[in-house]
């Protein structure tokens, strides 16, 4: 099987949709020899911050010399980003080999009258087989959606579990309240397996306590306490803080990244108890060296251009807090594209106050909301709304607009699905930087 054939098969399984429940993935893995039980796993669920926490934890573990596997979704730059070892993505030929192995088992299941595994179940099985064969020291395993019924929730005894930040997302599958969503995320917790949790408000605390009691981990599980964190500095260049007597520096900006990194620190403490040789210098150096693209990442200095993959209410509120903290009173120029199954009306309510210009784009995805529909909704807040069919044209237009205002900041957000190419082109210097006041704005207005 070639890589192209393998991807076509994944595209076919995409049409099968999402099937909640673990029967199919468990049967698939059983026929593959249960690889999920032959690799050491840290399992993480949550609405926002899973990737950031894993990036920090990966940095810590790699600094200590460990071989670290990561299974992530969604991806930003390439499909194969979801399978990586010490930051190196699986290559195309290897993916084709593993896909063929899993497909043969899926074909046998279908022949036996069972459901054919979905795309995420297939990818998850590939991940377990691949990381088992590569004998990674540890696998950082992100849930796809939810937790309790997520295809990744098949490991009998992970080293520990992590619950990241919770907010409203995927409500059609996970429930229409934070309590219901949190219950699904807590479903990855296992008997006698410690858990590290991002701080929650009082409304969710009872659920956390009850779940720890249920799993006999009250004494070993930890929820990060914000009062234990002493923030020394937080700016666009990163942050410094004191946690439990140790000082840590981050190169990634954002207040929420401090809390994400503390979750990683607490997880490192748990791994120490499991026998992993993680010294405090590994923790501090690993955190300081961590970079996480697509999360409040600066792409250009003049004008300042930032990109953030915020794609749900929790992410939008965190981005809004960053904007209010770091860019008060600045002329905000937005480039935004979003999926139609997201709460984009709430996104606009959160993000539009103070906006100067809004450029609507349409992600290259079947789930995308029309850029024209998004633009019409944005006009309820401001007059300077534009629509672009090409994201590069949107960036060039934002740069032109920036030359016409006094103190501009360009923010690109709304979905992870369209920001990868923007980041790549910006890093290669593909966008013009020679716009001057008085340039012809009409040339780039697109369909306004």
Could you walk me through the main structural features you see in this protein, from its secondary elements to its overall organization?
With about 450 residues, the protein is α/β, with parallel strands linked by helices. About 40% of the residues lie in helices and about 15% in strands. It is built from 15 helices and 17 strands. The protein has helices spanning about 5-15, 25-30, 50-65, 90-110, 120-135, 170-175, 180-185, 200-215, 255-275, 280-290, 315-325, 345-350, 370-380, 390-400, 420-425; strands at about 40-45, 70, 85, 90, 140, 160-165, 195, 220-225, 230-235, 240-245, 245-250, 295-300, 305, 330-335, 355-360, 385, 410-415. The protein has an eight-stranded mixed beta sheet with strand order 4-3-2-5-1-6-7-8, with helices on both faces. Helix 12 links the parallel strand 14 (about 330-335) and strand 15. Helix 3 (about 50-65) crosses helix 9 (about 255-275). The relative contact order is 0.11. Mean pLDDT is about 90; it is low at about 435-448.
Topology record:
Layout: H1 3-14, H2 23-31, E1 41-45, H3 50-63, E2 68-71, E3 83-85, E4 88-89, H4 92-111, H5 119-133, E5 138-142, E6 160-163, H6 171-174, H7 178-185, E7 195-197, H8 202-214, E8 222-223, E9 229-235, E10 238-243, E11 246-250, H9 255-273, H10 280-289, E12 297-300, E13 305-307, H11 313-326, E14 331-336, H12 344-351, E15 355-360, H13 371-378, E16 385-387, H14 391-402, E17 408-413, H15 419-427
């Amino acid at each position: 099987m070639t890589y192209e054939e393998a991807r076509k098969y994944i595209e076919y399984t995409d049409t099968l949709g999402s099937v909640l429940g673990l029967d199919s993935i468990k049967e698939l893995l059983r026929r593959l020899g249960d690889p999920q039980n032959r690799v050491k796993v840290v399992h993480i669920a949550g609405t926002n911050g899973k990737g950031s926490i894993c990036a920090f934890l990966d940095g810590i573990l790699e600094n200590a010399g460990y071989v670290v596997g990561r299974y992530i979704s969604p991806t930003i730059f390439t499909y194969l980003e979801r399978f990586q070892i010490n930051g190196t993505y699986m290559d195309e030929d290897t993916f084709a080999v593993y896909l063929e192995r899993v497909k043969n088992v899926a074909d046998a299941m279908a022949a036996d009258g069972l459901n054919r595994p979905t795309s995420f179940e297939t990818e998850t099985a590939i991940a377990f087989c691949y990381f088992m064969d590569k004998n990674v020291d540890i696998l950082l395993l992100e849930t796809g959606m939810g937790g309790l019924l997520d295809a990744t929730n098949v490991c009998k005894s992970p080293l520990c579990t992590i619950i990241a930040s919770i907010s409203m997302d995927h409500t059609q599958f996970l429930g229409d309240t934070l309590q219901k969503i949190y219950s699904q995320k807590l479903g990855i917790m296992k008997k006698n397996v410690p858990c590290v949790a991002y701080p929650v408000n009082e409304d969710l605390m009872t659920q956390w306590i009850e779940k720890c009691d249920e799993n006999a981990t009250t004494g070993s599980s930890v929820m990060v306490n914000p009062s234990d964190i002493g923030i020394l500095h937080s700016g666009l260049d990163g942050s410094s803080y004191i946690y439990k007597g140790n000082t840590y520096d981050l190169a990634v900006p954002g207040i929420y990244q401090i809390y994400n990194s503390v979750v990683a620190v607490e997880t490192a403490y748990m791994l120490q108890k499991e026998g992993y040789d993680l010294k405090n210098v590994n923790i501090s150096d690993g955190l300081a060296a961590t970079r996480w693209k697509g999360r409040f990442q600066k792409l250009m200095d003049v004008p300042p251009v930032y990109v953030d993959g915020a794609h749900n209410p929790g992410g939008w509120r965190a981005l809004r807090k960053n904007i209010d903290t770091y860019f008060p009173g600045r002329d905000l120029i937005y480039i935004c594209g979003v999926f139609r199954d997201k709460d984009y009306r709430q996104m606009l309510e959160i993000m539009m106050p103070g906006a100067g210009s809004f450029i609507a784009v349409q992600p290259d995805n079947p789930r995308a909301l029309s850029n024209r529909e998004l633009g019409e909704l944005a006009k309820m807040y401001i007059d300077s709304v534009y629509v672009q069919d090409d994201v590069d044209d949107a960036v060039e237009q934002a740069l032109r607009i920036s030359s016409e205002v006094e103190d501009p900041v360009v923010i690109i957000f709304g979905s992870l699905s369209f920001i990868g190419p923007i980041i790549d082109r910006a890093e290669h210097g593909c966008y013009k930087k020679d716009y001057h006041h008085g340039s012809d704005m009409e040339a780039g207005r697109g369909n306004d």
